[in-house]
Amino acid sequence: MSIEKYDSEVKVIASSQESVYNHLSNLRNLEPLFDGNRLEELKKQYPNTPDVKLDNFSATEDECSFSISLIGQVGVEIIEREPSKLIKLAGSKALPFEVHCWIQILPLAENTCKIKITLHAELNQMIKMIIGKHLKSGVDQIAEALTRINYPEEPLSIQ
What we know:
The chain is α+β, with helices and mostly antiparallel strands. It has 3 helices and 8 strands, in the order ββααββββββα.
């Protein structure tokens, strides 16, 4: 097994660094991304995306879980936060390999920032050959999806 690194393209978001960080550092805010209609739109935009179904999303501020067809229930948890700059996540034990993800957020201007996703996955050679290219395109697609979120300028109140 070796640890493979997959970096997304750097993407620009038309919101402040703080707004993006505040939104992404609460995993409850990811729920709209699991909307079936939104997933169908993404499949049309990215026709080479593997045909997987995502559902059964549940989340707290620090953890979320969901079902992926062919894999089953998986999840991620935030393991470290560096306010306004970095969110580190780790995958659940249900995944067939160990995975860590970093979301880096850097300011460009007062209401513009850039974002980059780095995925570290411990893969054996067979799994790397099967899903390696999908992991690279996946981090790029996630980074692109994060540019399409409407980030509130005021932090959301959690009830």
